Amino acid sequence: MDPRRRTAESSEISGGSGWADLPPELLEAILKLVSPRHRVTARVVCSSWRTCARASFPSDLPFDSPRLLLRRPAGDLAFFSLRRAEILPFALPTAAAARCCGHIGGWLAMAFDEDREIALWNITSGESVAIPRPPLFPVAKMLLSAPPTSPGWVVAVLGRSGTIALIQPPGGRWMTIEHGAEHGGFQDMAIWRGRLCALGCDGTVVAYRVSLSRRVAAASVLRAVQHPVGYAAAAAAGGQQRIRGRWWNYLAVDIAGELVVVRREYSVRRDAVDMEVEVVRYAAAEKKWETVEELAGQALFVGSVASMAAPATEGSGIRENCVYVARREVEMLVPHAIGVYSLADGDATGLAISGGHSVAAEPVWINPSIA
User: Fold this and answer.
1) Is 66 part of any domain?
2) Can you give the pTM of this predicted structure?
3) Which of the four, 19, 149, 196, 204, has the lowest number of CB atoms within 10 Å?
């Protein structure tokens, strides 16, 4: 956002010196009546306004359990609330053509595919941070080691070609990791214990210790090849009544700080889409992978842009011991965009999204904060 424009908008809201004398409870009530974008703008006026603006956010806007960020058919962004089971419009000050490819805290990474550029947008302050143009486009996923306000933060991008590149803004140079070719390309990545972990299309998990100053990446294999690269094509062959889809693999870091691989296979029938899910967790002490039979008190949320774990607390709308999947290729075939798989009984259900959303952009799980 242009600082001059932000200042002008702040002046429009403040109006005059009399606003500074308003009781906090009255200012909070007023801010609840304005748009989310102007509520964000009010935060930059002064510390007291920032406090009131934060208090004026409805409790179910995107600041507690994971939300699904959607692109509506009209082009605007919105959040789907699991607790309310409805869409919550949220005005993000960015171009309608931008596509979310990652997030950390309250920062969203927005890709502008036509311009081959990426920018970080803060949904609570309206600030933006430019990222040097990556060598890989389109970008499938972007990770940040820390928010852009932190010293020494690093950006990793995964291209749809299956290659990963890293940079330390603002003055660094991009470094590309080419090892994915031998694994059919990388399908996902996550940051775990200070290492960049990449998941190959053959099921291999490779952990990298990267030195951007020396431009080297020391690799260690955490998980060996699980299936040939051509497995997806073989799995696609099916009968007339049932078509077997491919396995989608996701890397996630759960709330205990453990590395998790989620494998999901779908089957398309004439009247339904079936889903099977397998979850394995890396036991670092034993250096082995274990099948997860139960997610006690929590659920996993997986997608091609972001994956995470969250507690299934009372009133959150989250089902314990379940895997929530958001991906447009399959779930768009039926009138819902969230697949919910129970590890307890293997039952797969769909969570309907009222109002619909565009199939042009991948739905993204995010869990921002207003800190």
Assistant:
1) no
2) 0.78
3) 149
